[in-house]
């Protein structure tokens, strides 16, 4: 079984990325054939600064390793190191209906928020389909926002197979119920592009400030509070065990506890949770040679598989000179 997922180097990773996606990457790396990539081609739709993109990509790789991704178990690579993916994107584009892309949330949401939409953003789900299909992926661990894009991928694979014969593998998404949509400091989905994130490796001081700014309702100190309708409690749940959750829930309902106390609990729980990863990150940050070796070896492995699938696709639709 092939597991595959990608993550954009559009900024430093946040709690939503970790609990929605990265934690699943690590859980699945031991017993599945895992391919994980840093989606720099996707990031190019938002970052137009070579140095920044390069830097972000490197930081992303270091972060993933620090968080527990093991390059001996999983293949870690840069999306742009496998140019076959853009060939497959074009081929898929020729069988993609505009109406299918017009329905996609990520595009619709960004457009509503007034972020100018170019063809790259509009066709992003086709590149994502190519990312998945190029490696015969079976399972795609993602957060809730990406389910629709995996559905698009299945549609395109099915359409290709109908037109040209059984060629592509249909993938399934894997979403964790408990962390499908982690809220940001404004209560909306935590997202790098919405500037509402709490970054995993932010300095403790900055992180505390962000946690303290999480939006809550106007209940006073004495008021009983509803833990199930509170972004602070939703975040606490990610870090705490069931007993700790029940204790804090009880303090919410009893009244007499301010949101400040709950926020402090979130801050402390997060520091504890990512403590080891922080230490590992410091060691990894100085060793760029090892990092480059890991990414080069990852690209080699991914490309080997990618070439095989692209070859099959080209043969099925009459492209290329090798057939
Ligand atoms: P951008 O705003 O640039 O799209 P992002 O913060 O949404 O960035 P992505 O790189 O698009 O991050 O997503 C990487 C992975 O993290 C995806 O699988 C996505 O579903 C997951 N993810 C992102 N935000 C959240 C969230 N708030 N809760 C759960 N999963 C999330
Ligand atoms: Mg996103």
Automatic annotation (TrEMBL):
<dbReference type="InterPro" id="IPR050203">
    <property type="entry name" value="Trp-tRNA_synthetase"/>
</dbReference>
<keyword id="KW-0067">ATP-binding</keyword>
<dbReference type="InterPro" id="IPR024109">
    <property type="entry name" value="Trp-tRNA-ligase_bac-type"/>
</dbReference>
<keyword id="KW-0963">Cytoplasm</keyword>
<comment type="similarity">
    <text>Belongs to the class-I aminoacyl-tRNA synthetase family.</text>
</comment>
<keyword id="KW-0030">Aminoacyl-tRNA synthetase</keyword>
<dbReference type="GO" id="GO:0005524">
    <property type="term" value="F:ATP binding"/>
</dbReference>
<feature type="binding site">
    <location>
        <begin position="189"/>
        <end position="193"/>
    </location>
    <ligand>
        <name>ATP</name>
    </ligand>
</feature>
<keyword id="KW-0436">Ligase</keyword>
<dbReference type="GO" id="GO:0004830">
    <property type="term" value="F:tryptophan-tRNA ligase activity"/>
</dbReference>
<dbReference type="InterPro" id="IPR014729">
    <property type="entry name" value="Rossmann-like_a/b/a_fold"/>
</dbReference>
<feature type="short sequence motif" description="'HIGH' region">
    <location>
        <begin position="9"/>
        <end position="17"/>
    </location>
</feature>
<dbReference type="GO" id="GO:0006436">
    <property type="term" value="P:tryptophanyl-tRNA aminoacylation"/>
</dbReference>
<feature type="binding site">
    <location>
        <begin position="143"/>
        <end position="145"/>
    </location>
    <ligand>
        <name>ATP</name>
    </ligand>
</feature>
<dbReference type="GO" id="GO:0005829">
    <property type="term" value="C:cytosol"/>
</dbReference>
<dbReference type="InterPro" id="IPR002306">
    <property type="entry name" value="Trp-tRNA-ligase"/>
</dbReference>
<feature type="binding site">
    <location>
        <begin position="8"/>
        <end position="10"/>
    </location>
    <ligand>
        <name>ATP</name>
    </ligand>
</feature>
<dbReference type="InterPro" id="IPR002305">
    <property type="entry name" value="aa-tRNA-synth_Ic"/>
</dbReference>
<comment type="subunit">
    <text>Homodimer.</text>
</comment>
<protein>
    <recommendedName>
        <fullName>Tryptophan--tRNA ligase</fullName>
        <ecNumber>6.1.1.2</ecNumber>
    </recommendedName>
</protein>
<feature type="binding site">
    <location>
        <position position="131"/>
    </location>
    <ligand>
        <name>L-tryptophan</name>
    </ligand>
</feature>
<keyword id="KW-0648">Protein biosynthesis</keyword>
<keyword id="KW-0547">Nucleotide-binding</keyword>
<feature type="binding site">
    <location>
        <begin position="16"/>
        <end position="17"/>
    </location>
    <ligand>
        <name>ATP</name>
    </ligand>
</feature>
<feature type="binding site">
    <location>
        <position position="182"/>
    </location>
    <ligand>
        <name>ATP</name>
    </ligand>
</feature>
<dbReference type="Pfam" id="PF00579">
    <property type="entry name" value="tRNA-synt_1b"/>
</dbReference>
<feature type="short sequence motif" description="'KMSKS' region">
    <location>
        <begin position="189"/>
        <end position="193"/>
    </location>
</feature>
<comment type="function">
    <text>Catalyzes the attachment of tryptophan to tRNA(Trp).</text>
</comment>
